[in-house]
Design brief:
mainly beta
Amino acid sequence: VDRGYQIAAPIRSVIEAETSSGFWFDAARSGEGLVIEELGLPIGYGKFSPAGARRVVVSWYTFAPPGDPDPGPRWLVGVGFQTGQGVHVPSMTITRGARFGAAFAPEAVERRDWGSLSLVIDAQLRLQLRYAGPPGWEGSARAMTMLAALDFDRRPLPCCLGGLLDPPPPDAPLSIATASGSYTGGASRDGEGIQLQVIEDVFTGNRRAVIAFYTYDPQGRQLWLVGQADDVSPGGGEVVFDMQRAEGGVFGDTFDASAVRRIPWGTLAVTLAPVAEVQIPEQMRYHATALRWTSGDPAYGSGGYPLTRITAPSVTGPAP
């Protein structure tokens, strides 16, 4: 079913004007949102993509549609490419089947194609989202704003007040924002992962981080957790997020923000450390190297594992 809605972005003072990388949400539909990452490496000709187009990762954390016999959180993820007007993702994927924590098995992950989506950005930094999903996943126009924009240690003026300043000089300190990106636990955790973005408050300059953890509950249903950490150290170390899960929402026009219940889940601690790039050993970048969780719900308990980077937004340099 082809549907669309418009996403209006506020002034963004820390990312390139042509990028949409960040966390997006609709204040009237608090409890769901998008995460967009524009990647650094172009792609060649393919079935859907033009040569030289930049890759874009889009994830959508939301809920099952009305009437679904198994209601609850849902998340979709896909890799698309830039077009002349914005971004097109030809195939968004939805999953199920794996279990949380030590019971996770990558072979248990069931993947299926959900549909496609397109983002169009105009000169006023407004994004229009159109999507074509399965029957039942209908919806109409919505307005969303950018919750998080990437910080990479330069001080541009707001886009509408004069454009960007020059990039930082080569001898500038390594930015903690280079840790931004997507990570998994390697092949043994294929089918779940995190999206991390370090951001800077437009008015105060304080660093904080936003994270989405796409995983499963103990019964094999999709689960997404989101959290924020304030006062992130520019030198890295362990960043602890207070994570929440959500219940009560539905996809589409019958979504009611007042029905969404935000439930404290526990903490997710992510270690940020500078790492030499494999292809360019003299080039350093912060990575999220490990995560560990502690949940107040005994069904989730505590645990952790090392992380492997799979994407890096273009403002932090080309993806490895």
